[in-house]
Structure formats: structure tokens, C-alpha cells
Amino acid sequence: MNVMARTTGLTLDVESPDWAGGEILERITEEAAITAPDGDAPRVEMVADEGAVVATGAPVARLHDSPEVALVAPMAARVARVHLRAGRRLAEIVLFREPGGDVVRHDAGDAAAGSSDALLHLMMASGFWPRIRRRPFGRMPVAGERPLSVFVMASDTRPLAPDPLDALAGREEDFARGLGALAGLAPEGAVLCKPAGAPLAGVPKDGVRVVTTGARHPQGLAGIRIHAACPAAPDRPVWDLHAEDVADLGSLLVTGHLPQTRLVTVTGPALNETRRLRCQTGADMRALSYGAIRTGPHRILSGSALDGHPGHWLAPRHRQVTVLPAGEAAPKPHWFLAALTRWSLPRPVIPTAALDAAAGGAFPVMPMIRALSVGDDETAIRLGALSLVEEDLALVDYVTAGQPPLGDLLREMLDRVEAEVGA
Q: In sequence order, what are the beta bridge partners of 223?
């Protein structure tokens, strides 16, 4: 990778109170939910009905088309409410915490001994599978799939994101074990993406390639790194995972239990204090931010200020909660002006140095914008769109303030290509 590819990008200044330091506290919220990962809405079959009490890590639902893939409880809980959309597609399964409770453990012996088939089965049965994001298309992998390569992200350049290296502190052995196991699944091994100069002890040398990332956004995004090092295609699936999830896999191989907590930052200009917590997946974001929000209207996002979305629950792959002041609603334009605006979309984009930097030097920005805007899927694919998902273009959308958002156009393009190839 050349120097420009590692140094280009932008530094975003998002206001948030300084973290006071001290110990990172564990906060298991009284309510949590199992929701679909971004870009995914899988059809599911319920295993536990409303009112049932489940153990930590117990299957609550399974994928309809791949029942070996389990969606598991992040805590000992009672199933409070099940909300499925048309076609039994997952919206949310709300859980109420139960004190005490058992912990589900799996037989990890064969997987730990090096059996790749056993490892795949363990990852699907334990609830690890939804943590994996597959390129192209940005969804869970097909059940039992083996990737061409696995990208492990020990770098995150989103504004105010928790440092993945902090999440690995004291877990170096688990991380090395999980990384080695994943590298054995892929013909081209694993690619570890980490900040330059950051030490990571015990990283396996066989099957693992280390790539250093710059400090500016979007250098720490998986799509930028995948496009540069191992472009994805329908017949060349590539996985990406957060480094903390890889450490959880390493722990699963030893203990038979998949850890259900993660390091999360609670940040934003509407807070009195910034928090760093360990909470369960799908945690109640209101509870995570309770007592820290300034007086006044606000909105809570799952994810960063750049690419987050409003919600009640922390999204499956997110590690940030952002609290923003609620802006005043803009007055509605006259109907004639609204019609003119609507039919004149997409709005023109002016090439600038900031726009080039917003893509991290990974691809030519203006040709990509033009291709996605006019629905030229062939050109977008040639420029690398199959390695990207919405978050990879969020900074471009921020710089251009374009309408419709480029991320939405990318999702439409990915859905069209997915339908065409029958993936």
C-alpha cells in the first residue's frame, strides 16, 4: 500500500465531553433486543416463544433457510415481545433480563483441534455467525460458506469510536487463537488491519498478513481495506470482523461459551459526560446514556454521528452510542418548490480535494458518484463497489450533502446485482 493510501482522509471534529478516565464499567441493561444486522432482514423461525426464559447464549430463533444458524440471547432473560415483519423477517425480539440464569456452553473440542468443518458448525450454533459481514452485499455469509479472505479490523477511524486495541487489552491470547482459526478457513488467509506502530503480541505468522492503516477517516473502515487488498466479487466472498469479535471466538474455542459483551462508547454533544462501558449486544441505548444527557430534546443514534441511525437498541455490529441535540424541524416547502426539487434530484456535486479525501484514496470519487447516480452498475462494479457497503460512503455523503444519499444508491445497486446473480 502506498503512502498516500494510508495518509489521505479527513479528521472529523465531533463535540463530546472529555472522558474522565478510570475503570471501564460493565453495564448490562435490563432490556435488550435481538435485531437484524444493517443491510440484513433474515427470515427466522422462533425457538423460544414469548414468555419463555432463556439462558445466556441460548438459541432464541434460527434462520428459516439455514436452521443451523442460531440467533442467541445476549443475557439470561425472558422473551418479552417478538416482532416479525411480513415473510417472518426479523424486526426485533425484545428480552427482559432475568437475575442469575444459566450459560450455554458448546463442545469446541474438534474446532479447537483444527477441524474447519467443526469450526464452521460452532460459529453458526453459538451465535457468532451474525457478527460476520460478507462482501459483496454486506450481509451474513451463506451458511457454511468459506471466504477467500478474512479482514480483521483492529482499527476504527470513525469519530469517537472506541479503540479496538483497548478492547483487546488482556485478551491477546484469545485474539491470537481466534485469528489463527479464521486464517485456516480462507485460502488467502486473514488480513489484520491495525494502526501504524500499534503493538499486538502473539499474532500468528502463518496465514496472517498485517496491513497498517492511517489515522484519518475512512482509513479504518473494512471496505476501504478490502477494496485495496482483496476486492470482493460474488464468486470471491470476503469477510470482515471486528477484532474484539475475533477475541470472543478465541475464548469460545477454549471455554465453549461465546462472550456476549463488548466495549462501547457513549458520546455526543448532548451529553454531560462521555462513557466507556462494557454492555451486552443489543443493549438498550436509553439505559446506557441515562443520567448523562443534558436537559433538552435529543436523539440517540446507534453508531457514530457520521453513519449512525436512530433506534432503541444498539445494532448488532455497532460499538458506539451517539447522543445529539434534536434540531428544530425545518418548515415544509411550498408544494411546487418541493416538486421541482424532487424531480431535479440527484443534486450536482462539485469535485473538491475534501471529496477525494473522503474516499480514502481507494477509488475515483466522481466516476463512482456518476455511476451510482445513473444506475450504471457495470461501471460501479469496475470501480470497486462490490467491496463497499453504506458506511464506506458515509463520509462522501457528509462532504457532498448529496440527495439522495450515495449510500442509499449503493444499497440499491448491491440489491440489484445480488438479485441478478442469485446470491
A: none
Give the residue from 220, 222, 241 showing the smallest Cα distance to 152: 241
Shortest CA distance to 324 belongs to which of 353, 303, 355, 342? 303
> What are the cell numbers at 377?
452498475
Instruction: Note the pLDDT tens digit of each residue in 374-415.
Output: 999 999 999 999 999 999 999 999 988 877 899 999 999 999
- Cβ atoms < 10 Å from Cβ of 98: 15
SS3 4: helix
Residue-wise DSSP of 221-284? -HHHHHHHHS--BTTB-EEEEEHHHHHHHHHHHHHS----EEEEEEE-TTBSS-EEEEEETTBB
Phi (first) and psi of residue 150, to 5 degrees: -120, 125
Dihedral sign, CA of 169, 360, 237, 211? Answer: negative
Residue pair 401/394 in contact by the 8 Å Cβ criterion? no
- What is the number of H-type helices and E-type strands within the chain? 14, 18
User: For residue range 266-320, what is the model confidence (pLDDT) as tens digits?
Assistant: 999 999 999 999 999 999 999 999 999 999 999 999 999 999 999 999 999 999 9
How deeply is 67 buried, as exposed, middle or buried, from its count of CB atoms within 10 A (0-12, 13-18, 19+)? Answer: middle
- Which residue shows C-alpha cell 457478527? 131
DSSP character string of 12-41: -----PPP--SPPEE---SEEEEEPPTT--
- Secondary structure of residue 190 in the 3-state scheme: strand
The span from the CA of 273 to the CA of 294, in Å, is 9
Radius of gyration of the chain (CA): 21
State how far the Cα of 239 lies from the Cα of 150, in Å rounded to an integer.
5
* β 320-325/261-267 pair status: parallel
What b/e readout covers 47-62, taking b as 16+ CB neighbours within 10 angstroms?
bbeeeeebbbbbbbbb
Instruction: Count the Cβ atoms, other than its own, within 10 Å of residue 297.
Output: 9
172-183 vs 243-255: helix crossing angle, rounded to 10: 90
